[in-house]
Task: structure prediction
Amino acid sequence: MSPRKLVRTVRFHELGGPEVLTIDSLASPSLQATDVRIAVKAVGLNRADAMFRRGNYIEKADFPSRIGYEASGIVIEIGEEVDHLRLGDEVCIVPQMGLSQNGCYAEEIVVPSEYVALKPAGLTFAEGAAAWMQYLTAYGALVEIANVQKGDAVLITAASSSVGLAAIQIVNSLGGIPIATTLTGAKKAAVLKAGAAHVIATQEPLLDSLRSILGVNNLKIAFDAVGGPQIAEIAEAMSPEGTIIVHGALSPETTPFPLKIALRKSLTVRGYVFTEVIKDIERFRRAKQFIHSGLSEGTLKPVIDRSFKFEEIVAAHHYLESNQQIGKIVVVLD
Result:
């Protein structure tokens, strides 16, 4: 038996900053009956990747650890029980759990076929690698949980992130009113251009700004990536029986539970991660249909901030942690 091909794969052997990332040569993994082998053309970076690398994420690394939730590429081998994909298909990887073993930062990856979606013809490989984590995260919260309806006002925090921009697009596609926040006023124009109806810089008084835009008790849904003390202001701005969905913890400060406000207004305040969708067969099916349709029709369009080469993975992660970006950072392979 000839030796298996060596594949350049990004891993890290200890927790830390971007410098802990290394490019290792690993034997190409074997293919199971329901798997697909993909030659990777682009990889999408997420804030979760940086948190995972530093040990601050919901998943913990098993060293030496792979990394990366999403990618795009070309199918080069198919398991014997896979009947919905063909050699040469251009595909996207839908995020799955198990980053240490299943990370996508590699020249070639093997993926269970249920986590492989055809790339719409109108998308580049970079856009295909930038799509699924952001839209899957926003979809689960805004469609499956909040059930956004026409005319609903929706607060979207950290809106210049890829998930924030995805949320703006989804809210607009559903006829809602996306109200965005950014850390500073420097990104306001870009977020407005991306489709937000209003943008608030978080140095501004959040509660006063929301009330000046909406009046009192007219904010039905909040999709929050930040947490921290501003949860109390968001709660105070909510309409009775409103829903606050917290999907991130960007604030280093403690997040208080706004008990008295929640009682007074009968609020729902709940945590959320995208795995709620992929663990539920029907939700996952609906999500894939919604996202693929939106990408094909153009109502959902990934925003690429900057691309790096595979060999520049450390620099790409430095840029990821700089918070300069508006949209997605991708790494492209030849």
